[in-house]
């Protein structure tokens, strides 16, 4: 397996000093001595100190090099060092704690004070710096950076005022987010009284206004006036007025000319269905806002510097590919360092959660060998393709900053008022095929009779375009890739570059043979006839675009998703309408729309074909995912006697690619389309030892473990084979199987925080029906099929970003026969939280969780996990054995991590 070994070696050297190198703290006692005395009390502080020491010590390590570089006057080398993306991105703790003196002087790689501090490659700041603290506060909604808010407002291009006369309306910026419209009105009324009470301004009329509306959760409100005089009085009295630590700013509200078209569409629709008022209020909604004088730059202060970096971060490239400015090897190092922090966090939190009187587990004691990491981080596997690797892109539909209907990426967070969408220009992770389809669709929207989606008032029709591409011929890719890799290597050697730098594999795009387009709309309130006509036109435009493009642009499936929700994240069961793709130049007529093929796409992993539905999860970087699954399989220690649980299995990718190495695979997945894909994929690839269960893992895991593992061992049983018949297959179990159907739903309902984050596509019409469906998915219909006993039970879990449900963690942790668990995570934070619960020792005296305690709302995920660990039934904890990262997302800070847990 290829790893960026060079990068890793140097990073490990500098960031992982052995414990001997760490100086004693706390009056000469070593960290260990202090910890053994009162671990809970001193742990956090010592860990931080330890990290500081590590940093200091890593600084020591590069010091001689720095001196050499300056003394040797190798200016090129020095510049190279200063160009390093991490140069001066952390504050020097030595400088801070030693009266602003540091023996490394200007060669110190850490910043001596806030002035020297540089933003990190992902545009974040050293968390201990003033800047980071300020930002953190604003993120928490307590304080908002003034210019940040201004920037956001400037980026709001959708409609969010309801005035019929924008000339007599103003936008108030920097209002408290939590204010309602009533708060804003009270404030304005109070201001009026205040002025009237001032003797020096007896002539003052007060702040009179017509309407005042506050945008929920945002720092802005709209105030309209009866007359220009009223408006000017308000500006005179309130613009610049202090509001907490901010000053109110009053912005112009400018009607957008480009809205006329949408307006006429609205009128058209208004005559067919909707009550007049709805659309009349909509038609004037589209405005953009500019702040009086904010471009003048008359307030050059610290905030402005901060704002400059924020605004830089808001180019589409910076939003979509924030690490793209770094060489690929530096991106890998950056990700590795941040994963190391997560592994340290796991150790610290598990130590903290370890119950009184229980000795620290071996792995925590051993963590000293790894500089505080909970286990060895074995490295990071590079992505085989660095550019254009995404096989799936979700493009938003909205207005650009120039007011043009655009298909691309949102420039920021809607909650902050950012709605501007920019074209996917210069985003190296997006394929040219995806960009091309976005541009064809954008061209179509400019002439559509239906309006684009407005995020502020949740009206409009066109919402999103998803481009999924696949169909690399593996042999072709293999040979192209080997040739290119060799060429790149030769080139790198010639140019003196290190391996691991960006590999352009442009030709790979030419081997894409399938493209599925999914267009998300909201059909509410629109006439069916108009919709059908627009779909016909859209299908023609997309088909024409694909055939007339200068580059190869296959279009093999087209489907519309109808979604009414507020955000574009549609539930898995949102209605889908497949459309047929007309032959270029031929008008197929409305009938043709109904003759569409099933919208599916075929991709290949480890020489298996995977048929994927539009809403099923599939990793966005297929070649890197292949590495990920094979690593997980290698670490799982599989054999013919292994029963493998593939938890959160999606279309069955992990289980099916490993099926031939195990006795039996049981996959659990809540998305019904993905489960039906998994069955089909087993069939396509002739795999018979897999069973896929459509349910939430938290609802069925306990029963499945019992079904397979609690039966008496029957030595003479024939090896189990199973059929994959396209249904929720439950082809195991016999009359003797003690399937326990007592549901553990009570437990689930204790964890609102997780439930709120996960949607279900499984039936849930009432508790009884739900319970019934869970029972069905766990009990065999064929009562005669014997349950095979397996010597070895392994679980590979690959949960969504929120991590595993606490019920699943509890079931896995407390089942004594599950000895090995491979955790694949795309979110280190949830991995840390779940691993705390899996790996912290428990006692007989478990604490009861207070169900009415709402304190968890303000807890970090690790804090919550520590809390839950206290109520874990007494059971043998897992130990983290090793971890490795796989980079599926070059140019972004994201990364997959695989961790092996054993007991
Ligand atoms: C990160 S994806 C992994 C999918 C699959 N392992 C793969 O690599 O293609 C997570 C999957 O978990 C599913 N999922 C989310 N919550 C779940 C739950 N509570 N129970 C079962 N599956 C769930 C999602 O639908 C999604 O398919």
Automatic annotation (TrEMBL):
<dbReference type="GO" id="GO:0006396">
    <property type="term" value="P:RNA processing"/>
</dbReference>
<feature type="domain" description="C3H1-type">
    <location>
        <begin position="86"/>
        <end position="115"/>
    </location>
</feature>
<dbReference type="InterPro" id="IPR012677">
    <property type="entry name" value="Nucleotide-bd_a/b_plait_sf"/>
</dbReference>
<keyword id="KW-0808">Transferase</keyword>
<keyword id="KW-0863">Zinc-finger</keyword>
<feature type="binding site">
    <location>
        <position position="619"/>
    </location>
    <ligand>
        <name>S-adenosyl-L-methionine</name>
    </ligand>
</feature>
<protein>
    <recommendedName>
        <fullName>C3H1-type domain-containing protein</fullName>
    </recommendedName>
</protein>
<feature type="active site">
    <location>
        <position position="826"/>
    </location>
</feature>
<feature type="region of interest" description="Disordered">
    <location>
        <begin position="712"/>
        <end position="742"/>
    </location>
</feature>
<dbReference type="Pfam" id="PF00642">
    <property type="entry name" value="zf-CCCH"/>
</dbReference>
<feature type="active site" description="Nucleophile">
    <location>
        <position position="826"/>
    </location>
</feature>
<feature type="region of interest" description="Disordered">
    <location>
        <begin position="115"/>
        <end position="139"/>
    </location>
</feature>
<dbReference type="GO" id="GO:0003723">
    <property type="term" value="F:RNA binding"/>
</dbReference>
<dbReference type="InterPro" id="IPR035979">
    <property type="entry name" value="RBD_domain_sf"/>
</dbReference>
<keyword id="KW-0949">S-adenosyl-L-methionine</keyword>
<feature type="binding site">
    <location>
        <position position="798"/>
    </location>
    <ligand>
        <name>S-adenosyl-L-methionine</name>
    </ligand>
</feature>
<feature type="region of interest" description="Disordered">
    <location>
        <begin position="1"/>
        <end position="61"/>
    </location>
</feature>
<keyword id="KW-0479">Metal-binding</keyword>
<feature type="binding site">
    <location>
        <position position="669"/>
    </location>
    <ligand>
        <name>S-adenosyl-L-methionine</name>
    </ligand>
</feature>
<feature type="zinc finger region" description="C3H1-type">
    <location>
        <begin position="86"/>
        <end position="115"/>
    </location>
</feature>
<dbReference type="GO" id="GO:0032259">
    <property type="term" value="P:methylation"/>
</dbReference>
<dbReference type="GO" id="GO:0008270">
    <property type="term" value="F:zinc ion binding"/>
</dbReference>
<keyword id="KW-0694">RNA-binding</keyword>
<keyword id="KW-0489">Methyltransferase</keyword>
<dbReference type="InterPro" id="IPR045850">
    <property type="entry name" value="TRM2_met"/>
</dbReference>
<feature type="compositionally biased region" description="Basic and acidic residues">
    <location>
        <begin position="725"/>
        <end position="738"/>
    </location>
</feature>
<comment type="similarity">
    <text>Belongs to the class I-like SAM-binding methyltransferase superfamily. RNA M5U methyltransferase family.</text>
</comment>
<dbReference type="InterPro" id="IPR030390">
    <property type="entry name" value="MeTrfase_TrmA_AS"/>
</dbReference>
<dbReference type="Pfam" id="PF00076">
    <property type="entry name" value="RRM_1"/>
</dbReference>
<dbReference type="GO" id="GO:0008173">
    <property type="term" value="F:RNA methyltransferase activity"/>
</dbReference>
<feature type="compositionally biased region" description="Low complexity">
    <location>
        <begin position="1"/>
        <end position="14"/>
    </location>
</feature>
<dbReference type="Pfam" id="PF05958">
    <property type="entry name" value="tRNA_U5-meth_tr"/>
</dbReference>
<dbReference type="InterPro" id="IPR000504">
    <property type="entry name" value="RRM_dom"/>
</dbReference>
<dbReference type="InterPro" id="IPR025714">
    <property type="entry name" value="Methyltranfer_dom"/>
</dbReference>
<feature type="domain" description="RRM">
    <location>
        <begin position="174"/>
        <end position="255"/>
    </location>
</feature>
<dbReference type="InterPro" id="IPR029063">
    <property type="entry name" value="SAM-dependent_MTases_sf"/>
</dbReference>
<feature type="compositionally biased region" description="Basic and acidic residues">
    <location>
        <begin position="46"/>
        <end position="59"/>
    </location>
</feature>
<dbReference type="Pfam" id="PF13847">
    <property type="entry name" value="Methyltransf_31"/>
</dbReference>
<keyword id="KW-0862">Zinc</keyword>
<dbReference type="InterPro" id="IPR000571">
    <property type="entry name" value="Znf_CCCH"/>
</dbReference>
<dbReference type="InterPro" id="IPR010280">
    <property type="entry name" value="U5_MeTrfase_fam"/>
</dbReference>
<dbReference type="InterPro" id="IPR036855">
    <property type="entry name" value="Znf_CCCH_sf"/>
</dbReference>
């Amino acid at each position: 397996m290829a790893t960026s070994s060079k990068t890793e070696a140097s990073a490990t050297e500098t960031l992982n000093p052995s414990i001997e190198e760490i100086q004693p703290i706390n009056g000469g006692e070593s960290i260990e001595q202090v910890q053994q005395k009162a671990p809970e009390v001193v742990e956090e502080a010592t860990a931080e100190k330890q990290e500081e020491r590590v940093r200091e010590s890593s600084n020591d390590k590069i010091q001689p090099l720095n001196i050499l570089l300056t003394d040797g006057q190798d200016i090129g080398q020095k510049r190279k060092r200063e160009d390093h993306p991490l140069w001066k991105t952390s504050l020097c703790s030595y400088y801070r704690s030693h009266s602003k003196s540091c023996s490394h002087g200007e060669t110190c790689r850490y910043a001596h004070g806030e002035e020297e501090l540089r933003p990190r490659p992902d545009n974040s700041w050293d968390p201990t710096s003033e800047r980071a603290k300020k930002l953190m506060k604003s993120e928490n909604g307590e304080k908002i950076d003034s210019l940040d808010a201004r920037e956001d407002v400037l980026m709001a291009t959708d409609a969010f005022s309801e005035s019929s006369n924008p000339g007599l309306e103003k936008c108030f910026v920097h209002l408290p987010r939590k204010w309602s419209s009533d708060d804003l009105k009270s404030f304005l009324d109070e201001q009026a009284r205040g002025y009237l009470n001032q003797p020096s301004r007896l002539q003052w009329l007060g702040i009179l206004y017509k309407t005042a509306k506050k945008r929920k959760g945002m720092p802005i409100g709209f105030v309209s006036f009866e007359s220009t005089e009223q408006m000017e009085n308000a500006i005179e009295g309130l613009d610049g007025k202090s509001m907490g630590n901010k000053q109110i700013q009053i912005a112009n509200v400018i009607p957008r000319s480009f809205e006329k078209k949408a307006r006429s569409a609205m009128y058209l629709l208004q005559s067919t269905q909707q009550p007049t008022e709805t659309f009349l209020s909509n038609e004037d909604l589209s405005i953009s806002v500019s702040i009086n004088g904010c471009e003048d730059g008359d307030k050059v202060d610290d905030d402005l510097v901060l704002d400059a970096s924020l605004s830089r971060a808001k180019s589409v490239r910076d939003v979509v590919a924030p690490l793209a400015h770094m060489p690929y090897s530096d991106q890998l190092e950056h990700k590795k360092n941040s994963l190391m922090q997560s592994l340290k966090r796991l150790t610290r939190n598990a130590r903290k959660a370890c119950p009184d009187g229980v000795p620290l587990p071996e792995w925590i004691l051993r963590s000293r060998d790894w500089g505080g990491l909970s286990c060895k981080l074995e490295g990071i596997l590079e992505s085989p393709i660095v550019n254009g690797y995404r096989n799936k892109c979700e493009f938003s539909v909205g207005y650009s900053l120039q007011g043009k209907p655009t298909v691309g990426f949102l420039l920021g967070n809607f909650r902050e008022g950012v709605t501007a969408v920019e074209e996917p220009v210069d985003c190296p992770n997006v394929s040219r095929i995806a960009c091309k389809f976005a541009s064809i669709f954008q061209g179509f929207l400019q002439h559509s009779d239906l309006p684009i989606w407005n995020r502020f008032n949740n009206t409009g029709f066109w919402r999103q375009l998803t481009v999924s591409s696949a169909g690399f011929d593996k042999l072709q890719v293999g040979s192209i890739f080997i040739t290119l890799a060799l060429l790149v290597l030769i080139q790198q050697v010639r140019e003196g570059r290190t391996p691991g730098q960006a590999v352009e594999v442009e030709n790979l795009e030419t081997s894409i043979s399938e493209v599925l387009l999914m267009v998300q709309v909201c059909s509410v309130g629109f006439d069916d006839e108009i919709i059908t006509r627009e779909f016909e036109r859209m299908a023609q435009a997309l088909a024409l675009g694909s055939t007339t493009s200068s580059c190869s642009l296959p279009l093999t499936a087209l489907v519309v998703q109808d979604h009414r929700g507020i955000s574009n994240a549609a539930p898995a069961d949102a209605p889908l309408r497949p459309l047929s793709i007309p032959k270029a130049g031929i008008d197929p007529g409305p009938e043709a729309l109904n003759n569409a093929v099933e919208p599916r796409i075929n991709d290949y992993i480890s020489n298996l074909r995977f048929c994927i539905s539009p809403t099923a999860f599939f990793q966005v970087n297929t070649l890197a995912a292949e590495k990920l699954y094979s690593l997980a399989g290698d670490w799982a220690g599989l054999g013919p006697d292994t029963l493998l649980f593939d938890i959160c299995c999606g279309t069955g990718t992990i289980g099916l690619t490993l099926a031939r190495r195990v006795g039996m695979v049981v996959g659990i997945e809540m998305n019904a389309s993905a489960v039906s894909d998994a069955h089909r994929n087993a069939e396509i690839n002739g795999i018979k030892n897999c069973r896929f269960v459509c349910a939430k893992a938290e609802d069925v895991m306990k029963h499945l473990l019992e079904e397979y593992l609690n039966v008496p061992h029957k030595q003479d049983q024939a090896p189990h084979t199973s059929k994959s018949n396209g249904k929720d297959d439950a082809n195991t179990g016999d009359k003797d199987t003690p399937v326990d159907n007592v549901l553990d739903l009570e437990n689930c309902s204790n964890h609102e925080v997780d439930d709120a984050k996960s949607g279900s596509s499984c039936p849930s019409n009432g508790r009884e029906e739900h319970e019934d469906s869970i029972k069905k998915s766990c009990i065999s219909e064929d009562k005669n099929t014997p349950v095979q006993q397996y010597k070895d039970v392994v679980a590979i879990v690959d949960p969504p970003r929120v991590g595993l449900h606490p019920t699943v963690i509890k079931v896995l942790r407390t089942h004594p026969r599950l000895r090995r668990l491979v955790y694949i995570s795309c979110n280190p934070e949830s991995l840390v939280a779940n691993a705390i619960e899996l790996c912290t020792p428990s006692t007989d005296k478990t604490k009861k969780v207070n169900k009415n305690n709402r304190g968890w709302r303000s807890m970090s995920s690790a804090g919550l996990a520590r809390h839950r660990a206290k109520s874990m039934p007494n059971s043998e904890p897992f130990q983290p054995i090793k971890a490795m990262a796989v980079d599926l997302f070059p140019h972004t800070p994201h990364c997959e991590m695989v961790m092996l847990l054993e007991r």
